[in-house]
Specification:
Blueprint: H1 8-14, H2 31-44, H3 53-66, H4 99-111, H5 113-120, H6 134-148, H7 159-170, H8 174-192, H9 200-214
Helix pairs in contact: 2-7, 3-4, 4-5, 4-6, 4-8, 6-8, 6-9, 8-9
Length: about 230
């Protein structure tokens, strides 16, 4: 396990006590930061293409990582609904985010399997009658991060985006790890708000605001500097 689980009150209160950076400070990217940012942006521009064998294999790998004891009958199957896709063909849910939505989920499943399984199977807390669909929520988290970090802009101008570039220079997989953290934060918000399906957008917005505060802290230079990093289970 990474960190401890007694986090919610401290996480949401500690941010306000720590000094934040001045957004007007000049920030120039180092050659390493430029390369890693460009590589990440290239990932974000790849659409999911169900005609490409490597994309189909990636989708199969996601199923295997999610349900190792259950065989997938077909890439188009009602089984996908068990994971929280809207229909029997997950490729239709990647349209708004591209291949990175699949990559993020697979990274989470294989890097922090205990955390991933706990969220996938809704093992913790008092769950709602109408729960959020896990996989579709994951795609929404990917999209939220792209917007928050200004990854569609030439370079970030906000503090969260600038601090993320600093983290990226220390951890090449920072975007994927941050995704796992954001997903954990979203589920914690869901439980704290006692939310139901129709409130998902409110929960995601609250998650975005909290993540924005954490990424605006002055002492953030590595991924484990984020208070919410302690949420992740190996």
């Amino acid at each position: 396990m990474v960190g401890n689980r007694i986090w919610f009150g401290g996480l949401f209160n500690s941010s306000g006590r720590r000094r934040q950076l001045n957004a007007e400070k000049t920030f120039e990217l180092s050659p390493l930061q430029e390369r890693r940012l460009q590589k990440l942006k290239e990932r974000l521009n790849i659409p999911y293409d169900e005609t490409r064998p490597e994309h189909r294999e990636a989708l199969r790998a996601l199923w295997s990582a999610s349900f190792p004891d259950a065989e997938l009958s077909s890439l188009v199957s009602e089984q996908w609904k068990d994971m929280g896709w809207q229909g029997p063909n997950p490729s239709t849910d990647f349209r708004g985010c591209g291949l990175v939505g699949l990559e993020n989920l697979y990274f989470f499943a294989t890097t922090y399997p205990a955390s991933y399984q706990r969220l996938l199977l809704k093992k913790q807390g008092m769950r709602a009658t109408w729960e959020y669909p896990f996989a579709v929520a994951g795609v929404n988290v990917s999209y939220m991060l792209i917007q928050l970090l200004e990854l569609n802009a030439e370079r970030p101008k906000s503090l969260p985006g600038i601090n993320f570039i600093k983290v990226l220079s220390e951890h090449e997989d920072a975007f994927d790890v941050l995704y796992c953290i954001a997903f954990e934060m979203m589920d914690a918000q869901w439980l704290a708000m006692r939310a139901s399906y129709m409130q998902f957008n409110q929960v995601l917005e609250a998650t975005k605001q909290q993540l924005e505060r954490e990424l605006s802290l002055e002492d953030v230079s590595e991924i484990h500097d984020l208070p919410a990093y302690n949420l992740l289970y190996k």
